[in-house]
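fyi for ur records
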Amino acid sequence: MKYFSLPFALFAKLLLLLLVLPHTSVAYAASTGVFTVPLNRYFPQTWGTQDGLPHNTINALAQTQDGYLWAGTWEGLARYNGVEFDVFTRGEKTGLPDSGIRSLFYHSDSQELLVAGSRGGLSVFNQQQWNAQKTASSMINHGFKSSDNTVWLAIEDGGLEVRFPDGTDAQFLSNTSAYRVIEDRQKRIWVATNAGLYVYKNHDVELAAPNIPALSGPSFTFALNQDGDVLVGTEQGVWQHSAEGFSMLHPALARESISSILLDSQNSIWVGTINHGLYRLSGFGLEKLDANVGLPDNRIFSLLEDTEKSIWVGTNGGLFALRRAPFTTFTQSQGLSGDYIRTVMQHNETILVGSSNGLDVLKDGRFTSISSPLKRPTSVLSLAKYADNAVLVGTYTDGVMVFKDEKLTPFLNRAGGLPSNEVRAILHAKDDSVWFGTAHGLVRMLPDGSLEQFDESRGLPAHFTMGLAEDKLGRVWVATGVGVAYIENNQVYNIKFPESSDAQYAFSFLADNDGLWMATDRGVAFFDYATKSVTLAGRAQGLPVDKVFAIQFDKKARAWISSNQGVFLISRQNLQACMEDPSKQLQFEQFKEADGLQSMQMNGGSQPSLFISDEDSIWLATAKGLANIQPQSLERINGFNIPVNVEQVSLDGRVISLLQSKKPIEVSPNIDRITFEYAGLGFAMPSRIEYQTKLVGFNQNWLTRDQVRLAEYTNLAPGNYIFKVRARYPNGQWQESRMPISFVVQPKFTQTVVFKLGVFVIICLSILVLFRLRFHHLRKSEALLQERVLAQTESLEMQTRQFEYQATHDGLTGIANRRAFDARVVELFVQAKNKKQPLCLAIIDIDHFKQVNDQYSHLIGDNVIKEVAALIEKALPVDAVCARWGGEEFTVLMPNFNLATANKCIDKLRLSIKNHDFSWIADNLSVTVSAGVASIEFASDHDRLLNQADQALYQAKQQGRDRVIDYSF
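which gave:
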């Protein structure tokens, strides 16, 4: 499928033969009503064999009530759903003897499509079923069913065959070739043949106009005019019948061989010729479209207007459509100076357009180029209204010019004080000053003509200026290449965007009542006058682009936003809601090439690049022409009711028949996946059709499918279901399919009541058996558990004792540790004091123990400590308490010992250690100890007792070691 660059690469050399009306209007055609539009308001498309057509010769066209478009070719019948072609050929399914299709006729009363063609084949398609009819003697050029249900067949070299409802037949004009049959408002049947125009009267046919040579020669086609009278296409133009007889429709067609005629819904007459393309006769005159300007071929075979008012043309080179797309794009072919448009603005009753090749004025449907005052074209960047009905024009290389009285004259440039001749924005402020945004700074021209410059030195973020606006408070807003600022009372104030947005600069502004809108490099931003805060909506809210160039609101409070990815349409309410709550998503329409744009690349960085006229018509500067959309056109298209059909149902990939039946489709219990393929039959904007589906019995709510044309369900539970689908254009009315698909999923044996009941009984018995087994097991487990609990208890008790022992005993020697000794000394001290009994404490230290470690090793030292501990424990009285105090020191508590007896006992211990044989630990090893002994007699508390023993030990060491010293007060 091809999208021609329109409007109007398609019509780049369009010959407008304005033979009826000398003037045209882009928007209006008063003589035929406001709905008539010129050809440049249509959007062209072409389809060929590369797009799925079986042949490029389109002999016949029809549209059935279900919305499908049908095209008859020499290699089969193609059914089009707006996305793809489904091809029907000869064979058992259609009942046609040959694939060559010459004629299509849709009888709306019976909803039958008559398909006829080669080898006399005739078949009727109705309610998804084919019904082959009796073949004719040779190729059927046209099959027609009249209001009384009589079937008329125009046959090549076989004349006219008539098949009456009662089953009888009649044959007329056997030696001629009949081409077309039609019934007029008076129920007369007309027949076009190679031998002239005939009319059926009184069960016979006769020449309709024997005295008119053109109508006595070959006639090829028919149509009815707005009064229901016949239009005849002949070798000598188009003739129309009335009460006064026949007359030529238009003299310019007198030498044309006419192959097809169409009266559209605006009463325009379309005329297809055998070799010279397509004509249209309307309030705009006689317009011609041929192969030189976009038609696939000059030979026209068929014409059709669909339910959406688009025109379809069957040619010898493919299928061609003139679609009423939302957008119209004007280019050089309509008289613009250039296609690269940078700025557009309404001025009085005209539209001013600035392009890279100059300034143009659109008035009364025609573009007029304004001559440059220089010897070369002027590249226009910006426009702004000025005093005395003049317009200031900013240029790329020539500074500012003024447009007045249809002339451009120089106004201000670098020689006159501008820092640069590149002027991207102009603002005529309320105080009558004029601001010029240039590539090297901002300039303000006061009413007296003096100039004042603003750049970085005055506080601007950058000198490159591309956008200007004045808000209701008189502040001038400036968009630069690296930031945004406003100027108030000659003071520059820079604006910061939210850090989370990553926005850096703006392209343009729109001043509003309560704030200022900004088109930025990260979406749409809004500056609130009251809070001076900036909010933004962009990618995080669903916008598919970063950079937006301009924003304007139409009369219905909808925002039109331009970008490099086309045009976005968002409601003001939704836009504000997303700015107030960033978690919400933007709901928008996006317009691209398929919607009539020559290019989806809009232009920005100069202003105004987006403009809405007083009539609420939207104009946009694009990289390929001037784009325009009238909201009423969009609403007209969105308002179309789109028929939607389920085209295919697949069960695990196997396509099933959709022939109408009162019984639901039965789905085997072994089927895991059910797939529905559907299509909305809208041709104005097929890529924008939205779908919703509902599977009654599975969910009760409509599920949004966006543009997806397939719904799939897996592992559905047994039961009855109804699949429904509906479609619409954006913001249009939902149109539900007239034939929902009912089906029933059969249960597997394992899902039947018998199986479930049996399973229930087995489960109950199993539960009973399991209960008994479980009870027995629990009793056995209880005994085992008791044994385990008892064993575990004993183990825990043993562990507790071990922990208690480890907590109070030294790990190396096995005697009490300091912690245990501390507790015991307190206890015995208090007891001795209370009972006034003697108590002594000795601290024993191994002499020169460090030398043992250094000379032998720490392992030998550990063995010495253990041996000394054993000797101490062995030598002490039973009621004495000994402990390892730390390192090589030991403590001994001796209840009921006075100082003398304690000294004697400890000294005896010292001698035993001194005389002990330590050679088993290490050769030539001898060990001595020193001790200090203190008595409770001189200590007021246990800490003092310990301190006194420690002092005595110190004296023993000082006196040469290997001795016992008493503490004496």
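DSSP finds nine helices and 73 strands in the chain. thats all i got for now
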